[in-house]
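Q: Give me the 3D complex with NAP.
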Amino acid sequence: MTDSPPSIAIIGGTGALGGGLAARWAQAGHAVIIGSRSPDKAARAAAAIEAGAGAPSVRGMGNAEAAAAGDIVVVTVPYANHTTILDQIGAAVRGKIVVDATVPLTPPKVGTARLPEHGSAAQAAQAILGAGAVVVSALHNVAAHKLAKAAPIDCDVLVCSDDEAARAAVVALVRALGLRGLHAGPLANSAAAEALTSVLITINRRYKVDGAGIRITGDLADDLADDLADDLAGGG
Ligand SMILES: NC(=O)c1ccc[n+]([C@@H]2O[C@H](COP(=O)([O-])OP(=O)(O)OC[C@H]3O[C@@H](n4cnc5c(N)ncnc54)[C@H](OP(=O)(O)O)[C@@H]3O)[C@@H](O)[C@H]2O)c1
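A: Here is the predicted complex, encoded as structure tokens.
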């Protein structure tokens, strides 16, 4: 690992979730590459983001080029386009961590959890990309419009992967967003995080909440301190 933080390519980075993530990671000092089906649209979205002091500039390009340019690749596209996009970036993400935030929502019943044949969207992603890429799932339960504001966000982030080192790297990336990322086990556990989004949508509607989040209770302080120490030592 180099001294500078990894660059992050966000596929679908012109959208609600991708745009919020791009702004926060840029502020935290990561080089960010916004991917889009339209390089012009990506360039416009990149120009609108203010990077942190001294941070590398934010760039925009086509999805496959963005995936090739980033050290870590984050997928933030609607579930209906998940397979198509993964097929398009597959060659470019070999040897990389792919963070999948896709929730397998099936409109119009987005308040009802429905998981795909593979068990979760994240497992489907791993099946499509194959062993050449390491899929880590995260960020399913954070409301995009909250990321777009500077205010603290009251939500934990469940991070799942079969590869512990990759999971640790993404826990650190979540921390850079100003959120608490938690090791939540293997990729199969992504089913729980993905399904929780439909629960949160239902709660938002029923109680008129502006983006309900999740909190894991219990005394996690020591383990979180260990995670932070690993980050600082360059282990995550
Ligand atoms: N919004 C949230 O609060 C939130 C929270 C957690 C997780 N998620 C998940 O994150 C993902 C993105 O959500 P979002 O709300 O950011 O979505 P979005 O704004 O509707 O779309 C994100 C981007 O996906 C690209 N896209 C749209 N249609 C496409 C198509 N047919 N083929 C390829 N790319 C297409 C677009 O980029 P270009 O037009 O530039 O190509 C768009 O800007 C979803 O899977 C969602 O479940 C969302």
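A quick observation: The CA atoms of residues 7 and 71 lie 5 Å apart.
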